């Protein structure tokens, strides 16, 4: 078996290169989420959303979707669909509260929903920066490198799309080559963009091959996911609806996410923007259940505000924070998993990118997030992927995971005997109590570094983004292609070659 097929190489193992990295684990939200509004206020947002869907309605730009919704009981006038409130409640009630998202191999399975949290890498920026090079167009080399980083970093549980758009691949075959890279360079749960029916179907089939299961099993076990964005305000376009039709019909996960920017495509008030977000989310979630009752679906919140001087999206703001918390309350009201994001508007790996990300992550986590999209690597309002930001974000997410672990309070941790042993004016560095617990319980960040100035070495003089760059090189060097059985790999390679030879999918450009 060649190294390409997963043979162990002589390169250093991950634990030797970044020894401080915590193990692969899925965190759980063991704290009570914050309630940003009262029950009455939450109900007012819910009722206002139902009123929007019943009176104004929402456009579904697909004849099949309109016909299915009419058959389900919606009022359809051309492409404008209006929902009776009872119909909305009945349809969304069939969506599952929790399910398993199956990895390429079972050790990468993820629990989706409940109190479980999933972190993803950044997705979809057209530009990339880092590794000592300036901002550049997205390309396949950087795409592959970022997939490798996502595979090595234990804080990243799944990709959530292309960590940078590989624009040097022709759009007709880009999804084929990119999905093949995603499935061979990583064994974490894959993603597909819903940009046409054939793209969805190709990615589902490639995932089935990589998992080594039959069509019945892939349709019984959610194994790939896609984000469906409403075209705010109040519209679902054709390709998004086709994505729901193909994915939900095959029991694959859909993340319904309106992109509501207060003051631009949504009312300028946070409450009004949330009403619009909620109406669009409920309509999309309801449609997944029309396609297949019980199909896995997630309530996505992506409401923020804009800089009214420029019209540019703003992220990591107090408004975004509030919207995260209320979106989580709404998702819990409907007993649906909740998606939020780690976002910022900074153009570089600087203090702004850090504090805005902390605000975004904390808003998401305290909102009860289940899927933290763009968890590591996002810059410039989603236009730019940064290798260094991916490292720093992974470090931050590791800290969040550690913080969420329950505090152990028992006779051993209360340490009364250790306190007696040291007594007044002593220290605990050398006690047995400390030595026994330091390596097993102490969380050590990868990026942060602190020593007295007098003891600074070359590493101590580096700023955080410089240390992150060194770590990014080490992470890439530590990547090993995860093993895949020879017959699966051969079938996957043959599928890719055949579909590329056929020309992939039709494009308009």
Features:
509 residues; alpha/beta; TIM Barrel; 6-stranded parallel beta sheet; 4-stranded mixed beta sheet; globular; disordered N terminus
General description of the model:
The protein is globular, with a radius of gyration of 24 Å. A hairpin with a 2-residue loop joins strand 2 and strand 3. Helix 2 crosses helix 10 and helix 10 runs parallel beside helix 11. The N terminus is likely disordered. It is built from 18 helices and 19 strands. Strands 6-17-16-13-11-9 form a six-stranded parallel β-sheet. A four-stranded mixed β-sheet has the order 2-3-1-10. The chain has a four-stranded mixed β-sheet with strand order 8-7-19-18. The chain is α/β, with parallel strands linked by helices. The chain has a domain of 319 residues: TIM Barrel, CATH 3.20.20.480.
